[in-house]
TrEMBL record:
Name this polypeptide is given: DNA-3-methyladenine glycosylase I
One protein family per Pfam: Adenine_glyco
InterPro entries from the UniProt entry: Adenine_glyco, DNA-3mA_glycosylase, DNA_glycosylase, Tag
PANTHER family xref list: DNA-3-METHYLADENINE GLYCOSYLASE 1, DNA-3-METHYLADENINE GLYCOSYLASE I
Transmembrane segments: none
Length: 183
């Protein structure tokens, strides 16, 4: 039996991480609330392992009303206190405040968040052969971060923007021989 080749970051031990790699990461994801969820989770991931966030994702979804932009934009200080007391999520006030701020900013986007983010897609990005070929920042991620900040978003630097671009399929950074590259 031939062993499947995966991107090395996916590891080979945690079934949740492998499923995320194989079935979700790098696949095109559109829709304002869906993209907002990923912007929010990438902000929460900053400084932490993605696996930590992935394991808490269902808790985040419950705590943030399924990442409904209008619902999160209407959060009050009482909601912030509720979130700070929720052990099922990452309890970081700056990140919680940023998510609420970003929901408010997303409400004001003329074409919606998904369209704004997808304007920065780079389907022609080079195919990485090794993890050393995968950048942390690109001109596209710098442009996306700059535009999101211009629109009032927080916790959206170029590295976070590139992680978002990878996660929702704006670029395909699965390694050349990865089983998920062509799925």
């Amino acid at each position: 039996m031939t062993e499947l080749i995966r991107c090395t970051w996916a590891g080979m031990t945690d079934p949740m991480y492998i499923a995320y790699h194989d079935e979700e990461w790098g696949r095109p994801l559109k829709g304002d609330d869906a993209v907002f969820e990923r912007v929010a989770l990438e902000a929460f991931q900053s400084g932490l392992s993605w696996l930590t966030i992935l394991r808490k994702r269902e808790n985040f979804r419950a705590a943030f009303d399924g990442f409904s932009i209008p619902k999160v934009a209407a959060y009050t200080e009482q909601d912030v206190e509720r979130l700070l007391g929720d052990a099922g999520i990452v309890r970081n006030r700056a990140k919680i405040d940023a998510v609420i701020n970003n929901a408010k900013a997303a409400l004001d986007l003329p074409g919606g968040l998904s369209d704004l983010v997808w304007e920065h897609a780079d389907p022609g990005a080079p195919v990485p052969r090794t993890m050393a070929d995968v950048p942390a920042i690109t001109p596209g991620s710098k442009a996306l971060a700059k535009e999101l900040k211009r629109q009032g978003f927080k916790f959206v630097g170029p590295t976070t923007a590139y992680a978002l671009m990878q996660a929702i399929g704006l670029v395909n950074d699965h390694l050349e021989e990865c089983v998920a590259r062509t799925r």
